[in-house]
Amino acid sequence: MSYRGLTAALATQHGKQRAIAPAFAKALGLAVEVPCGIDTDALGTFTGETARPGTMREAARSKARLGMAAAGLPLGIASEGSFGPHPFMPFLAAGREMLVFIDDTRGIEVVEEALSEKTNFAALDLTPGADVAGFLTRTGFPSHALVLRSGGRITKGIDSHAELGRLLAAAPEGARLETDMRAHVNPTRMAEIGKLARRLVHRIATPCPACGTPGFGVIRSEAGLPCADCNTPTTLVRNLVSGCARCSHENRQPRSDGREAASPAECPECNP
């Protein structure tokens, strides 16, 4: 099962190897190579010039395979992210990160993803009286870069007060400031990718109990946590199901926080 001494291709033009390569080297002894000349923006941009075709997983898979083809390697890694309102708390911003590892030697694809509220994702319309100073503080500028949409033009990677001041002075009414969510200019996002990389390598290092294939881990959750008062199944997660990247073996475990019941306030019978 060892990957020690081998190399995987990572398709990125935004420096993600800084967050991903150390985790793979430390846990698996697997080196990471970044092939030159791959335009990952062709698979989608945060600023919308290029729409992402298909799902996050499909885009990440395409990136990984581009890297594998360019490097001539059977192992590939790719990252994909998306940002917007939190799915359960819409007043909060959230980021979803995904990492895909492909091993064509074994015929497997291993995926880890995470949803996090730890993001500086935000935007500000530059209307009269807009609190630009507050926005800069909240978003971590200038260590975190910004994007300016102005008169049909998009300027990315703004990371100095001098540059921002010059652009704002020339910006027409209706311009908009946004956080630049590309990893190499967004340290908060880069840190989240690093955390996910450590989760992914742990999963890759976990063999299937049935066939020994790397990558055994959680593949889905099951709802139905019972109400503490009336035992009615709720929409809350009751079990986590782990599965193999290759065979059909699965294990079912209770949720990881040890919670065995939902409160009546979360029950469709007690609190309809």
From TrEMBL:
One Pfam family here: DUF6671
Compositional bias segments (type: Basic and acidic residues): 249-260
Residues covered by the DUF6671 domain: 64-272
Organism: Aestuariivirga litoralis
Region entry Disordered, spans: 249-272
Protein name per the record: DUF6671 domain-containing protein
InterPro entries, sorted: DUF6671
